[in-house]
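Quick one: structure for this chain?
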Amino acid sequence: MKIGGHCLCGKVEFSISTQSKSFDSCHCSMCRRWGGGPALAVEVEDGVTFKDDKFVNIYSSSEWAERGFCSHCGTHLFYRLKDQQFWNVPLGVLDDQSDFEFTSQIYIDHKPRYYAFANNTKMMTEADVLKVFGVTS
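Got it. Here's what it folds into:
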């Protein structure tokens, strides 16, 4: 299914394709620092299609991943792996967020004690995640 989205100021508009209406949470320190709390993101197929990428900036956040954001308003637009076709888009930037289901939490071993989600989700540690993507730390 195709879903549209945009940044806070509207200078970046895009569309994504996703197989399901599920989203995940990442508790790693980088995601929490990037967004001020855990990331809530949707896995997308075939990347993000931008109407115009003039205001899309990319930050290389690690050896294997990078994050995109609007250079005008700072809205977080995506997280992607550099050497694989894997993209996540924050749930909050999508135009239609209805009917999404919270399905998994990753880097659960990095989650601080000061919050907890009540949803019953799949839980993956850092080691679990790195193994799935074949990343060695």
